[in-house]
Amino acid sequence: MNTKTLERIKNDKKNAVDAIIEEPQKNSSKISDANDLKRSALISMLTGESEENKAEENKAEENKAEENKAEENKAEENKAKENKAEENPSNIKSFSQKEADLIKLLSGVDPSENNTENENPENENTDSKNVKKSNSTLDTESKSQKIKIPELKQGKINSPNSKVGELAKSFASEFKSIPKQENKNTTPASIHFKNNKEFLVGELIKELVPASERYDFLNKLRTSPNFFPPKVKGNDAMLIHWNGRFGNRMHTYAYLHNRAKMHGGKVILPSDWEGSKLFNLDYEIVQDDDLRKGINQTAKDFDKLSYRMDRVRDYNDKSNSNFRYCNPDNPKETYTKYDQGVVVDSVCAYHHEIFDKMNLSDVLKLYEFKDEVKNLDLYKRMEDKQGTYDIAHLRRDDISNVNYKKNGGYSVISKESYLKAFKKYDYDPEKIVWTSDDWTGEWGVGNSLQSGLISKRGAWNYPTGSEYIPEIIFDWFPDFLRLYFARSIFRANSSFSFWACTLSKGRETPPRIFAPRLNKRILYAKEETYKQEADFEFEESNSPHWLCITGKDNCDDILFADEK
Questions:
Q1: Interhelix angle 211-222/3-21, nearest 10 degrees
Q2: Domain range summary for the chain, segments of one domain joined by +
């Protein structure tokens, strides 16, 4: 039985405890010595607490429960509301070894090992089937067989014919797999109910603890920190999905780094990315195999936020973590400190709040090129030419493909708009160097293959991104450096050239930068604007957003806090 399955057992046991604890206490008569010993032994096994001085401890706890009952009830109600609001009903760390030992002791079945004999639901015992059909909590009248502590400790109750043995075997087999969520409205509790799990736990407890003792027994379990440990607190920032290519990822990582630094957390990524080859970055990759594989799915049915969040909740249950969703483009959440980890699924560039608390000076330190990059022949050649040429970036590739239906809102800026900008700012168009991903040659400005900067185009694969090419690192990196080292830059509606311009501000002599001000959106592949290019005015600044529409979206300009 794997770790995830054992975590589910813990969830279901909590559900059972929550249901049973509501059962009214009956028969408050004096508990027999044998029953007292039995309860003491069970509590010790499940919680790890000592049996010594149990009578005195029980008496003190009863007095304390009497005095603080109202406060405890109120606290539990508030906790239940918080858990529901966070959509994270489980707060159980793990199925402890002592609890696994208890099941093994009762049935001879080790719940930590896979068992195949009861894999088929048709092989379930009759009692378990009857339990599955039940919609009620445990019977208040005890029907349990008398189990003596010596027998319990000696492991003599291992017959598959005994009620406890049958229940324990079903208990072990029932938790072998994680139930699939049928729809987004199906709660974890209802899923577990349908799969009989909490009732098996409940029935097992019923067989061991008489009804007259059950209230105290379960109350003890619920208040034990070893049984229900608190959730792990932290302020880590975890990315659960990369959105876009290198330029977009620069935005994403800059935000995650800024947030984690602000609140004292770590950056956790679903995979490595191009930035690790260029810059000295400090992050971790998701270590849990199930979570990492779950959030990196690319198949249509699984490549969606709802599926990824289900995997995050599974991880929370499994690891006792407490990650919650955070939308960086919502100013109420952007940098809010929750005292728990957050997961992000966004480019992290579509609200000015992101940049209002981010300094350009910090970004330039974060994205300083590695020494290995600076020692490349390519870098040295480009550096030797810095400040001696003016360049224009004409973005084409996917956004100018009429068959590309996933355009996120990019217009195809006309070449004429650039020519007008050259004239406006007194640049000779004949002396402008062009860089473009126009692989068709339709716009006549050339590309890095035609210019000889690269000998081949590299591959691109999700989640890691661009193929690594030792001599030039990535097939687009020569063009990035050409932008970075230019004397003047006419950039495109592109996060790629935005970041080349941004990093160039860290040079000893920064370049002049011109960018288009986007005031409309015309999609090249859309039927009503089919193959239509858009005209935009350029202005001398790098601040106009490369995608957001001025006056319409939430980020007209990208201005860092120390640039204002």
A1: 120
A2: 3-222, 237-356, 370-563
Within its chain, how far is the Cα of 267 from the centroid?
A: 11
Among 181, 23, 15, 9, which Cα is nearest to 89's?
15
E strands of 412-481, at which residues?
Answer: 432-436, 460-461, 465-466
CA dist 145 and 10 (Å) reads: 25
| Phi and psi torsions of 174, nearest 5° | -65, -30
For all residues of the chain together, what is the average pLDDT? 75
**If pLDDT is split at 50, 70 and 90, which confidence band does 231 have?**
confident
State the Cα–Cα distance between residues 521 and 528, nearest whole angstrom: 12
Is 274 in contact with 465 (CB distance < 8 Å)? yes
CB distance 249 to 242 below 8 Å:
yes
147, pLDDT greater than 90: no
What is the spatial distance between Cα 442 and Cα 437, in angstroms, rounded to a whole number? 11
> What pTM does this model have?
0.65
Residues sharing a CB contact under 8 Å with residue 288, sequence separation 6 or more, in sequence order = 315, 318, 319
DSSP state letters, 166-187: HHHHHHHHHTSSPPPP-STT--
Nearest alpha carbon to residue 536 among 560, 558, 514: 514
> Tokens 């691109």 — which residue?
460
